[in-house]
Amino acid sequence: MMLAKRGWNVTVAERHAQVSYADPDRSYVYAIDGRGRVFTDAYGLTPKLAEAGVDTKAVEVNRVFPNGKVVNARQVIKDEARIVYWLPRMNFVRLLEYRVKEQDMAPYITLLTNTEASEIERLPTNSSSSSSSAAQQVQVTLRNTVTGNTQRFVPKLLLGCDGMNSLVRQSMQHWAAADSSSSSSRFSMAEYPSLSTDLRFKVLQLPPNPAMKDGTVLRNPSFCLLAGQKSKSIGGPPLRLGLLPIKDESVGRTANLITLPDHPVWGVSDAAKLYKVFEEAFPQADWRALVPEPVMAKFAASQGGQFPAPQHSRGMALLVAPESPPGPAAAAPDAAAVKGTGVLLLGDAAHCFPPDLGQGVNSALEDVCVLQRELDAAGDDLAQALPAFEQQRQPDSEALAKLVQTGYPLQYNQYPLLRAVWSARFIAHMLVHKLLPFAISPPLFLMIQDPSRRYSSVLAATEHSKRVLAGLAVLLVGAVAVLLQKLLPKLLKVFAAGSA
């Protein structure tokens, strides 16, 4: 969309038959926050986002316990900058699809479905040269996964938006390894440990507004948590099901099951046994009435997915040629004002992490906005724009991966005791921030949704707050020790006198 708006001809390769394809095993619900809305504002999509999504200005939060007890709460957010819109990934992609089909963009965009890149090569301008240093073009071979037909493209700018296992990034790694002037690790992924890494998840399809045994209705636009208890059949820690809000009350909603990778529930692969497990773990619901057997069988057989470690590519941009090479590529309509040839990583190809902070989609949309600013500043000169983008975005990409490490990794209740400690620390942080706002920043969970703050700025503020809080803790312990030292002799005398 951003490139089409600039008058570039854009070819999009989509591996699925539809861009709005929804994997039933991984039916993501996006949370578009202030960062993401910078993008939707720029392309006139925010009103449609508001129509399609559930906003957090005032939203219901329901907890249903195994004994049938229901705890209702209402979450109200007055700060417009912190409002989030929740909607299924499929619905958000449809908004983008609607926009690219409008008259001002449609002529510039070619969408190839059932298509994936099978090979990415660097080509020298002089075909007789085999030196990688002479490479000035990139050739992409796209293959239709249905017909097997292939097409070759020589783009001015190749955007790698192909996810965590990006073929584009792998190609950049190979090129960097082949170039004596580049570090072989430049486009490798830097990973960081997190308590939510490797958690397994899968998604259960439920009817619209599902009802519990006592008649309690879990309305689609509300957050819901079905708290579970231990299943006698399989043992293991208690299960939980989380239901994220969706606006349309006529469509089915989804329940997320998230556990440690070794939970016994992953050994249950047939519907009959899983019905029994759910009836024991979640007695507040009539599972045979809620979930048809074919749906439960599919859910039981699904291996779901696994959260990745927070990670980022050590490089994001590669300039293949500073000037436009001669030949057909330079004569293409989109190349008239574009200088240079390059490759760029965006979204999950550049940085990915568990969904703890909801920044996956928002950071990807922010990538696009940063690229737009750099192209504007460089006048579409890729030799200037790509290095500037990497210089601007790389520190934020690294910072975000580090922020996810400690942001909210225990929300899945995989370690209940650690979660209690984390919650106490969060409350203490909030209290100290209110007392000393000039010295302590808000918890990063609140700062990260502010689009005016770069991720690197949030990380710096978070690290500063940690140091100040640690210092205050030392002072507090010292003060208590001094107080005890002064009071202890008096207390001992009082105790001795009382004994006498």
Automatic annotation (TrEMBL):
One of its GO terms (biological process) is kynurenine metabolic process. The keyword Coiled coil does not apply. One of its GO terms (molecular function) is FAD binding. Signal peptide: none annotated. Pfam families: FAD_binding_3. Gene3D superfamilies: FAD/NAD(P)-binding domain. The keyword Acetylation does not apply. The chain crosses the membrane at residues 426-448, 468-488. Its cofactor is FAD. This is FAD-binding domain-containing protein.
